[in-house]
Amino acid sequence: MSDHDLGTSGRARWAARGTWIAVEALIPLLLLVAWGAWSATANSFYFPPLTDILSSFRTTWLFARFGSDVVPSLLRLFAGYAAAVVVGIPLGALLGLSPLALRTTRPVIEFVRSIPPSALIPFGIVVLGLGNAMKVFVIALACLFPVLLNTVDGVRGIDPVARETSRMYGIGAVDHVRGVVLPAATPRIAAGLRTSLALALTLTVITEMAASTNGIGYFILQAQRSFPIPEMWSGMLLLGLLGYLLNAGFALLERRLLAWHRGARGTG
Amino acid sequence: MGLAAILGFLEALSRLGVVDPRSFPPISEDVGALVLQLPDLAFWEAVAATLEGWALGLGVAVALAVPLGILLGSLPPADHALRAVIEFLRPIPSVALIPLAILLYGLGVTSEVFLVAFASFWPLLIQTLYGVRDVDPVALETSRAFGDSWPRRAGRIVLPSALPYLATGLRIASATALILAVTAELIIGSPGLGREIEVARSAGAYSLMYGLIIATGVLGWGLDTVLDRTERQVLHWHPLHRGAEAAS
């Protein structure tokens, strides 16, 4: 490539990139059209025509059930997630800085982490009942571990030269944590936060399926049981969109907040 | 040491009535309830059912994700063609498919396997993709220069180089698979530990419920430990593990 004339090869590359983008956009559209065409003629009870699903999506979620089901789901999701972040980052920083505390608590952390979070729902019900407190608690508990463990690893992986320099200059503990430890650990913490966000949505849906009278998870399971199948599909579509939007939103925020880090490493 | 202290603390909380001992039985009673289950065949059947859902789902996911990952990783046009589709499907919470699974496969183990396979498919696919993309291009070109055929290149250069990524993907997928297996048992009611936990809860047998939750934790920890050991043994030649062993 390098011994070609730069101008033409550059243009050729741009043309190629344009083709790729077109292909990337075209294939999903083709698949959607294929699904639409197939489902319109398949006459299957379980796979209703795509147009039915979309019209049910519009009548159900825009915005008839938005306030009654989507808002409670999102509130629980963010409450649990926020609790996990508020507890997980400081606790993780503490454990990362204190080898003794880490060694003492590690067996318990490793063990509780190994429990599939959905198995904690019956526990939550026994302790907190069937209401919102239980759901937020289970979501928070599930989201806690990725945040906590990534913070621990991030704090422990801090450059020893930076740590020793900070000590040499007699920087106080608070400034040391705020100025040296947390910035160095941020990329790892961000990775934990992203994992937890996906978990939060999953656990929101599961807790609503297990015990709830509203929420998206409750709605789609109810729709399946009473057989308005297009509504069930529309709920699944909504969950897919939510998962996609949460992930994309987080990626955007991360790129904004970690711009200094990627730039500093020369990989941005 | 730390573990003993925390266990003692939990025991004291219940014994002294700081927390309600009805919903928080002392930890010794929970473990006792679990120990009482050990001679019971039904308990082991539940464990086996959970493991079955985990293994079958994970097997299906490996069989689909690894070849697809190798294909997409080594064929850029295919990668581009499917990238947007994958990026859209991947963040869908797999539990959203529970109603569909029930409709298509009923309330049994097939639904569980379907959900487990869907959930563990994504980490495996992504890790395989990254692993294949990360193959040393010099090694690949050398092999091509020596006239190796594509299957030979895939088997001797691409796969060994991608194996550590695959191993990581497998461990993530295994944890995900267990979560989905237990969730399916809890929500759908397919046989396994998840259902037993829910049954114990609704019967008010809280010690047993806690005991079974502990059992799922042990199962999760055990599976991860086995995979970790196996990875170390199978990949002992890989620089990552050579370094790790020298360091520890």
Number of helices of chain B: 11
- What is the N-to-C succession of helices and strands of chain A? HHHHHHHHHHH
Number of helices of chain A: 11
From the alpha-carbon coordinates, what is the Rg of chain A to the nearest angstrom?
24 Å
Overall CATH class of the largest domain in chain A: Mainly Alpha
- Can you say what the CATH homologous superfamily of chain B is? MetI-like
Q: Tell me the number of strands of chain B.
A: 0
Poorly predicted ranges of chain A: 1-6
Mean pLDDT metric of chain B: 87
SSE ordering of chain B: HHHHHHHHHHH
Write down the CATH class of chain B.
Mainly Alpha
If you had to describe this structure to a student in words, what would you say it looks like?
- The complex is a heterodimer of chains A (268) and B (248).
- Chain A is mainly α and 268 residues long.
- Chain A has 11 helices and no strands.
- Chain A has helices spanning 6-42, 50-61, 66-97, 99-114, 120-128, 132-156, 160-168, 173-210, 216-226, 229-257, 259-265.
- Chain B is mainly α and 248 residues long.
- Chain B has a single domain (27-234), classed as MetI-like (MetI-like fold), CATH 1.10.3720.10.
- Chain B is 81% helix and 0% strand.
- Chain B has helices spanning 2-15, 27-37, 41-74, 76-89, 98-105, 109-133, 137-145, 150-187, 193-202, 206-234, 239-247.
- Chain B is elongated and about 75 Å long.
- Chain B starts with a helix and ends with a helix.
- Chains A and B meet through α1, α4, α5, α8 and α9 of A and α1, α4, α5, α8 and α9 of B.
Secondary structure layout plus pairing:
The complex is a heterodimer of chains A (268) and B (248).
Chain A: H1 6-42, H2 50-61, H3 66-97, H4 99-114, H5 120-128, H6 132-156, H7 160-168, H8 173-210, H9 216-226, H10 229-257, H11 259-265
Helix pairs in contact in A: 2-10, 3-4, 3-6, 3-8, 5-6, 6-8, 8-9, 8-10, 9-10
Chain B: H1 2-15, H2 27-37, H3 41-74, H4 76-89, H5 98-105, H6 109-133, H7 137-145, H8 150-187, H9 193-202, H10 206-234, H11 239-247
Helix pairs in contact in B: 2-10, 3-4, 3-6, 3-8, 3-9, 5-6, 6-8, 7-8, 8-9, 8-10, 9-10
